[in-house]
């Protein structure tokens, strides 16, 4: 049995004094520990000299970490440029925000090649490689080009649009062909799977076989790429425990005291245009306009951790939110009531868990989202005796399985206001039954289970491939 090699752009290196990492890092570390594994990726450091591929190695709690530094210009083109300013809007259906630049496309390819060159010497013949997310789509093909024959799986954490959208990317076919280097390509939901299959059919003229795999013959070698949906989860028990403790912690106690008898609506995310923050603020404004019985009876807390400040569209979003929050408070606030509390920074994980538990409504309304872990964390954090209500965008991957949520179209502020009113006035019995059906799903579909299922399927695929290779 070989090792498991996890590859992601950023490696969750253990650092002393850092807050507990989120669900994904914990889940991956657990599978790495039980498989005796290695986590490979970018170190977080850039250099002025060309990328050397020199490995920095570290062993911590049974896991090996290997990282490389990247040349500053390459990194800008690859990450801030191609990954975040081209692929991120493309995969989230936001073609108007896509700023194509051929040099960035070259940097993306170059960095993926540098990753492949640095990783190859670390691989044993029986290792299984699991590559994560849109920054590293060509890595499997680059590894194959260097001769790698190991089982390689890829998981896309963000949505997969259909070809009508995807084809806007110059070189879209090349990126689709890159996916064929993998033995398994996983996406979050059935909707994303539909998008990917549509891209293979309309973009490359390739249709899946009856088991959901694409068969190709590349340079005389027969290969098969299995396509499937694997919804990521969270550490449900762990998060529920954190929330139960945090509710009596100093931050939750202070927050509670500042609220009085008012109800609380909570939202939390990275400050990102895919998360629909302006639309959400407008929805809250519509609640106060259209349902005046809630005036002075409810507070909306929005924590939005700043991210990707180097990209202009993120700076524009920040300005828009500052204005909107000011407008809502100016229009509706009283000298002793601030309707909306807007905090543009990250909050410690346990503090956030306490706020979720205290909140009567979790408001999670992205315009598009691969999954959305906040929706799952909000539900896991609830008090079973008095659970809050999840108001969720139907465009979040999480909506596919979270049947107890009140679904909204985030583009419709009046509809959002109606669902908020419904959530704020929902009887206890209905809250409990909606919550327990979602919680049951979360207890089954944890982050750990997601990783185990993906890897089990990857192992099956590679085994099934051998006879056809021999034939
Ligand atoms: P993200 O876009 O980052 O992830 P999400 O799944 O919601 O989105 O995860 C965000 C994480 O950050 C959550 O664990 C949340 O608690 C935490 N967080 C959010 N706001 C915070 C704040 N202000 N302070 C501190 N912590 C905060 C991408 C995809 C998602 C997919 C995940 C995992 O875009 O669709 O669900 O990967 O696959």
From TrEMBL:
Annotated InterPro entries: Glyco_trans_20
Pfam families listed in its UniProt record: Glyco_transf_20 (PF00982)
Membership in a protein family: Belongs to the glycosyltransferase 20 family.
Protein name: Trehalose-6-phosphate synthase
Species name: Roseomonas haemaphysalidis
């Amino acid at each position: 049995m070989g090792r498991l090699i996890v590859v992601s752009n950023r490696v969750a290196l253990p650092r002393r004094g850092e807050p507990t990492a989120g669900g994904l890092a914990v889940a991956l570390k657990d599978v790495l520990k039980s498989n005796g594994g290695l986590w490979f990726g970018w170190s977080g450091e850039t250099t002025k000299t060309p990328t050397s591929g020199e490995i920095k190695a570290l062993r911590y709690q049974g896991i090996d970490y290997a990282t490389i530094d990247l040349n500053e210009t390459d990194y800008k083109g690859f990450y801030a440029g191609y990954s975040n300013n081209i692929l991120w809007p493309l995969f989230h259906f936001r073609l108007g925000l896509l700023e194509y630049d051929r040099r960035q496309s070259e940097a993306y390819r170059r960095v993926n090649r540098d990753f492949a060159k640095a990783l190859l010497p670390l691989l044993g013949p029986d290792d299984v490689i699991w590559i994560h997310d849109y920054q590293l789509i060509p890595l499997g093909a680059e590894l194959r080009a260097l001769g790698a024959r190991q089982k390689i799986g890829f998981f896309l954490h963000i949505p997969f649009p259909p070809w009508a959208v995807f084809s806007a990317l110059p070189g879209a076919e090349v990126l689709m062909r890159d996916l064929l280097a993998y033995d398994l390509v996983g996406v979050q939901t059935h909707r994303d799977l539909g998008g990917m299959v549509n891209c293979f059919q309309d973009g490359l003229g390739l249709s899946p076989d009856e088991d959901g795999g694409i068969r190709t013959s590349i340079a005389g070698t027969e290969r098969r790429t299995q396509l499937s949906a694997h919804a990521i989860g969270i550490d449900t028990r762990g998060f529920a425990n954190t929330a139960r403790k945090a509710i009596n912690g100093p931050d939750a106690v202070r927050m509670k005291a500042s609220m009085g008898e008012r109800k609380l609506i909570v939202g939390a995310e990275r400050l990102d245009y895919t998360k629909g923050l302006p639309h959400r603020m407008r929805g809250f404004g519509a609640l106060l306009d259209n349902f005046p019985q809630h005036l002075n009876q409810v507070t909306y807390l929005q924590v939005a951790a700043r991210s990707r400040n180097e990209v202009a569209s993120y700076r524009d979003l920040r300005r828009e939110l500052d204005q909107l929050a000011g407008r809502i408070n100016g229009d509706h606030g009283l000298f002793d009531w601030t309707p909306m509390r807007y905090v543009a920074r990250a909050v410690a994980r346990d503090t956030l868990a306490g706020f979720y538990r205290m909140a009567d409504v979790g408001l999670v309304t992205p315009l598009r989202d691969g999954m959305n872990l906040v929706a799952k964390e909000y539900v896991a954090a609830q008090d079973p005796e008095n659970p809050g209500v999840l108001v969720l965008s139907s465009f979040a991957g999480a909506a596919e399985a979270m049947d107890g949520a009140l679904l909204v179209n985030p583009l419709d502020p009046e509809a959002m206001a109606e669902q908020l009113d419904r959530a704020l006035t929902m009887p206890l019995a209905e809250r409990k039954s909606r919550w327990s059906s979602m919680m049951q799903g979360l207890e089954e579909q944890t982050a750990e289970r997601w990783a185990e299922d993906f890897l089990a399927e990857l192992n099956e695929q590679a085994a099934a491939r051998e006879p056809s290779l021999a034939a």
